[in-house]
Amino acid sequence: MREEIIDAFVDQVFDAIVETVKKSNFKLKTKNKEEGIIKASVGMNRRSWGENITIKVSTYGTKTKISVQSKNKIGDLPKKNEINEDKIIKGIDELLPNSREIGDTIKAVRMAGSDENNNIVILTLNNDKVELKKKGTFTGRDRGNQFIKLEDITNIDFKKGLVFGTVKLMVPGGKIKIKNASPKEAAVFVSSVKEKIMQKLGNDNISTEKMDPLEKIKKSKDLLDMGAISQEEFDEIKDKLLKEI
Length: 245
Hints:
- This protein is of the alpha+beta class and 245 residues long.
- The chain has three domains: 2-95, 2-Layer Sandwich (Alpha-D-Glucose-1,6-Bisphosphate, Chain A, domain 4), CATH 3.30.530; 109-203, PH-domain like (Roll), CATH 2.30.29.30; 206-245, no CATH class.
- Helix content is 30%, strand content 35%.
- It is built from five helices and twelve strands.
- The strands form three sheets. Strands 1-5-4-3-2 form a five-stranded antiparallel sheet, with helices on one face. Strands 6-7-8-9 form a four-stranded antiparallel sheet, with helices on one face. A three-stranded antiparallel sheet has the order 10-11-12.
- A hairpin with a 4-residue loop joins β10 and β11 (165-171).
- α1 (10-23) packs across α2 (83-95) and α4 packs antiparallel against α5 (231-242).
- The chain starts with a strand and ends with a helix.
């Protein structure tokens, strides 16, 4: 279950959720603004046997508290993934930008796909790392978590297929490949990782005056190789740093 505090009025949040449900692949079952409850459902797909989604909205001081819970339609099997709950949160972020309280952290960016063994894989980008969570496709059981520091990612890219695509991360020790990824989710995730890496490089000692200009050029070349900056931007940075030698 996801719970969030939204810096907006209850009516605004309620309407944003209803709009998100309509725009997504959810079927709106009931909506009761007076009680602050919205119910929706999702049919069977390759990641789930169908889910019922319940969203509760309530006043939280001058703000709004929401809880989003998605449960399987069949039996008591564990939930296959967290993507549908995330879609509701992302929908609010889009319709009511800058309204979610996120403290000192960035908004979590997520995408889902599968690994070589067809386990469900959920990638989550947080402040300084990417979390890789695996779940069994049929059992929903946890298959382990892996945390990857942003500074350990030497390259990340996305290759689109006919319907889905593949995300590849180059890390120490090899390559991580996530297939069956949604092109839209993957594009946002990959660009967010590159942007966060650039921010981190700029905030760390990499950008301090004490660092050797040649080392700065090397770091800039790493950004160029991963596609975070253009050739033109790299040339400009290199020319400027060479003058410091």
